[in-house]
Amino acid sequence: MQLFPTRTAAHLSIAAISVAGVGLVAREPAIVGWGGAMLLAMALARAVTLVSVSRIRAAGFEMLWSGPRRVVRTGRGSTIEIEAEVRNRDTLAARYVRLRPIASSQLQITIEPSAGEVMASGRLKVKVSVHAPRVGQHGVHGLALEVHGAPGLFEVPLTFANPFGVEVLPRPFAAWLPSPRGGRSKLLASSGRPGRARGEGSDLRELREHLPGDPFRRIAWKASARRGVLLVREFEREERDVVWVVLDASVELWAGPLGRAPLDLAIDEAASICTRYLSRGDRVGLAVYASTVRAFVLPDQGPAHGQKLAHLLVSATGTHDASRSDLDEADVAVRVLEHLRPLDARGLSDLRRGDLDRLASRADAVRPRAPFAPPSPEGRSPRERTLRRYLAAYGIESPPRGEAERHESGFMLAEVLAQIVKSKPKPSVVHVVAPAPSEVAQEKPVMDALRRLGRHSASITWSMPQFDPGLLPPWDAPTRADGSPSEEVADGARRVAWEEAAGVAAEAVLVRTRVAVSRSEAVLRRLGVRVTKIRATTTKRPDAADPKAT
Length: 550
Fold this sequence. Notes:
Elements: E1 4-5, H1 7-26, H2 29-59, E2 62-65, E3 71-75, E4 79-88, E5 94-103, E6 108-112, E7 116-118, E8 122-131, E9 136-148, E10 154-169, H3 171-176, E11 195-209, H4 221-227, E12 231-239, E13 242-248, H5 262-279, E14 283-289, E15 293-300, H6 303-315, H7 329-340, H8 356-366, H9 382-393, H10 406-422, E16 429-433, H11 440-455, E17 459-464, H12 492-526, E18 530-533
Helix pairs in contact: 1-2, 5-6, 7-8, 7-9, 8-9, 10-11
């Protein structure tokens, strides 16, 4: 158990050492004894604090989440509230000075009350507000409580490991999935939006004169008798669209502030297209690609299929795979070790340093307690796959790889479109949500695939990701590995200088990006592709919200 001195304890210790030093210089035993007594009192206070906090922990000081669920669903950009309960079974009250969350960096969390007191044999209700600016499966791993033991000169951090899962869906699916379907809503009934075409059906299209080859059963005898001309009934059938949504999930599209990266907006755009066509009763397929095909789901309809598409947009765009993650096996092992230690019954005290095989075995044994059950991510060995799966199961973030993969993804887009051309039923609408090919070598196979789609009478729409929101203020200041501010923004003057330099750099990148996007749009339009831009619907961070809003 670690103890940290408060500011008062630090001042008293400095004063005691100073008094003892003055006594030694003056050769006054009384002054030296006085300073020594103060230091002895500090040591005694530390021992008392250690005993009191140990007593609280032994009595059953714990934190529990309210409610039976350990996973909640929410939409990107929304804020949810989770209730927790801190219980103190000791006969003495416990005063805490800080309560902070241990959670994924993809979540923005505030806690109320952040300081207070847990009464003896009492309970304290804690409200945890979670703002979710990015899709994914994220974890709230627990709470850290900094307790003041008697006489209040030392603080002891107590960590409560109680995993909780927050699944953040794209905004359109978060609104579409809970809505009623079927019955009176008629969202999936046969009278939904169809495309009309001549053929066998139940709806009368028109009465027309009989032509050679028309079957006798279609003759309208009464109408023919009234007009004196042989007439036949022409019916129409409902022909629904077969829609494909193709999404580029390259790792460099995650670059940008949380919630304002190009891929944040692209995922919402793909989800909006899916929900729009699913609501009309059309069949929707989804292809997610990067340097490889991340997901390829054949077109279907219905609520269950919508659930499947929403889950794929969350999982297939993640970065836990070794080829998409900036963490190597050693980095992953460190994160697993830090998270697993409070969950293990022995605190991993019997685990030798560097024994990754045993760590993977222990992590796999604890994984069933995790809030999520993801498939095994890609890894260079079974051991690495086990460790990466542990991170994904507990919602521990894995930063995206620093190297770009647009070179491979451009060629992969051509393969995906070629596969869609060969699939059955034939597509009638194709929505591509991706940057245009960036290299001349990539353009030819992509354009050939687009021409083949056009020959099959498929309507093609290309939505270009928005880079502007991620290059506009406010920017996130650089931080160290522990989350503290970097030296570049250590004081006010450096912060102002950094913001000025960031503004100039962002403007230069923005100009180059707009030029590249305009060139790509011109190439696509020459091929008859309808080009649209994703609407930038970002959410404000809690600290950047309007102070006048209530």
